Amino acid sequence: MSNLKKLFNPGSIAVVGASQESGKVGNVITKNLLELGYTGKVFFVNPKHDKIYDQRSYKSLGEIAEKIDLAIIVLPAKIVVPVIRESAGRVKNFVVISAGFSETDEEGREREKELEALAVEKELNILGPNCLGFIIPKLNLNASFAGGMPKAGNVSFVSQSGALAVAIMDIARKENIKFSNIISVGNKMRIDEAEILEYLSQDEGTKVIGMYLEGIKNGPKFIRVAQKVSRIKPIIIIKAGKTEKAQQAISSHTGALAGSDDIMDAVFEKTGVLRAENLADLFALIELVSNTQAPKTNQVAVVTNAGGPGVLTTDAFGGKEIKLGDPNDGIKNKLREFLPAESSVANPIDLLGDAMEDRYAQALDVLDSMEGLGALVCVLTPQDQTPVSKIADRIIAFRDKTDKLVATIFIGGERVERSVAKLKENGIPNFSFPDLAVRAINEYYAWNRRRTADQSGAESAEPIVVDASRQENIAAIIGKAREEKRGALSFPEAQKIMAMYGIKTPSVTDIGAGDSLPEGIGFPAVMKVDSDKVLHKTDKQGVILNIKNREELEKAYAQMEDNFPGERFIIQPMLAIKTELIAGIKIDGIFGPIVVYGLGGIYTEVFKMVDFLVSPGSIQEVKASLAQGKLKFLFEKTRGQAPYDIEGVSKILFGLSLLAREAAEIKELDINPLLVYNDGKEAVAVDVKIII
Fold it and tell me: Residue 78 and residue 100: Cα distance in Å, rounded?
């Protein structure tokens, strides 16, 4: 962290590839360092020139006798590695602006590997390559090829796209958003989003961290760091790539259900990251968080001078954690003292279209005393008689004396433009539309609630210990299957593994290829093919249900042998079905093992009513996911139906998460169906598929 601090707070900078020629990247960076107020020492390196802007130009970094905290490299890609190698003994921080690395072709990928190996060997901090650079407004330091200097403030913005960072800065000027850091990470070769998050968590000037990401380099590290940082500061991420092309065919239902963006949602939920759905959402969240404190409660009061926008604002609260508070009779009576008889004193409070600034001010003062209130939202439309500027002044004055979150929704164009600018200059976030405002306040409240809960949960959670004995037993089972060149375990093998984690399975009769049917089979029964070549049994007619007697069993066996010659089969009791779930493990390429669960049965992939657990740290975390997720209706009493066994299902899902930690050889695991009950019976994993 001390090294990164020196990178982003350098006392001296060398630009390798500096230029006086207009239009070149090296020229933009040179002028930024000379003209925007940076007070540190600046050195220029370019062997083709003796001077650049009347300042000495050195032939190489080695010629500079003074200490260099940071070197900015603006050179053709093919000479970047040699130049850094020559100076690695005395310079430890680099920004590589140059493109031509892993984002191009195989030659570029090899070049980046060489640069990364050098960085590891010499313990270098390298931002990039293929990046815009960075900007620290409080230092008047623009170490990038973006023009200008944003206003200094408390927002750090990190972008995987340099072009988007430039666009964000341009929009921010209009929106009066002020920055502590703007950092372009480029290819993230050495310094990725996790390192930047950790650094910014310790930056006193940063209150909120915004990010644009196209991918995450190291999933487990990101989870660890983001979870820690989000307990200190809000992290707002806009993640590109929601609609990826269809994934390659996956062997199990579990894999097919787990799209990468679904997993990203689960990761953000686990880590407390606020996900922006689009750029408008990103700016709304950043503006709100950078200017206000999180609401202490979920109760919100809305005042409006127009009925329609008030209704739209009310609609926006649907499905949110924040709610429109209910004023008591005392508050309503105080409002009636000065409001017209036609006004509504329910929430939202309708001040009517002729409302002047005094009516807004009085209403806000009364509502400020409303018990349990966390936020106040002022809605305004610029009607003919509306004194927009004076109302804005009263809202600003009110904000200065309240401890509640104050936001505005001034809906309009030219008639509200100056007043909106005034509100923003005074730190009051304004939203053009009700849904943006309500979503942003809701996300901010939810972040604060989760942070408090996560901190107490982290203190009480016991560390998860890997069971070495289980690992050895599982390794032996999987080793035998591999010796036999099987891609999946048999059901009896899977059954043994399930038992290690307390997951109940039905009794089973195992029938080898060509074996006779045993006596003593109970009815009704189910017969299934048990083969690593037949993973989707229902699709292949590999399951025969509700076999009622010996005659039907013999007929079923003959049919199975005809359909699947040379394969093994199993017979299980036909269990009563109440509700079918699916549960399983998918290995994600970025984040590792993910536990997937949802409604099961043959319609699993049709309804896709599934949720995801990313490395749960406790059974309490699993239970919370069940209670708040898509299946929460199962665990609540509804229309006389008893709730299902949330404790039992939690134990099963947590057991799967332990299995994922302890058996890296498992590629996918699928329990479908997992039969669950609400009448005291224990959940049963009827079909278990483990792919190795």
Answer: 8
The SS3 assignment for 601 reads: coil
Instruction: Determine whether 2 is exposed, middle or buried from the number of CB atoms within 10 Å of its CB (0-12, 13-18, 19+).
Output: exposed
Residue ranges, CATH 3.30.470.20, the chain: 462-506+575-692
State the Cα–Cα distance between residues 286 and 642, nearest whole angstrom.
43
Looking up tokens 């290995």, which residue turns up? 587
- DSSP tag of 666: -
- CA dihedral 108→109→111→115, nearest 10 degrees, is 130
What's domain 462-506+575-692's superfamily in CATH?
A: ATP-grasp fold, B domain (3.30.470.20)
Domain with CATH 3.40.50.261 in the chain: 294-458
Q: In this predicted structure, what is the pLDDT of residue 258?
A: 47
Q: Where are the beta strands (DSSP E) in 493-609?
A: 509-511, 525-530, 543-547, 568-573, 579-588, 592-599
Predicted confidence at residue 41, as pLDDT, reads 97
Query: Does the CA dihedral 6-10-11-15 come out positive or negative?
Result: positive
User: What pLDDT does 294 receive?
Assistant: 96
CA distance 493 to 486: 12
* Angle at alpha carbon of residue 112, lines to 111 and 113, rounded to 5°: 90
Low-confidence ranges of the chain (pLDDT < 50): 1, 245-258
What is the residue-wise DSSP string for 300-313? EEEEES-HHHHHHH
- What's residue 638's pLDDT? 81
Burial class (CB in 10 A: 0-12, 13-18, 19+), 12: middle
- Torsion over CA: 59, 65, 66, 67 (sign): positive
- Which pLDDT does position 533 carry in this prediction? 86
Q: 372, exposed or middle or buried, with CB in 10 Å at 0-12, 13-18, 19+?
A: exposed
Question: b vs e for 31-40, b when ≥16 Cβ sit within 10 Å of the residue's Cβ?
Answer: bbbbebebee
Q: Where in the chain is the domain with CATH 3.30.1490.20?
A: 507-573
Class of domain 507-573: alpha beta
At 2 the pLDDT is: 52
Which among 252, 258, 254 has a CA at the least distance from the CA of 535?
A: 252
In this predicted structure, what is the pLDDT of residue 61?
95
Q: Which residue has the tokens 């009925």?
A: 307
How do residues 67-84 score in pLDDT, each as one tens digit? 999 999 999 999 999 999
Superfamily of domain 294-458: Succinyl-CoA synthetase domains (3.40.50.261)
- Residue 589 is predicted with a pLDDT of 86
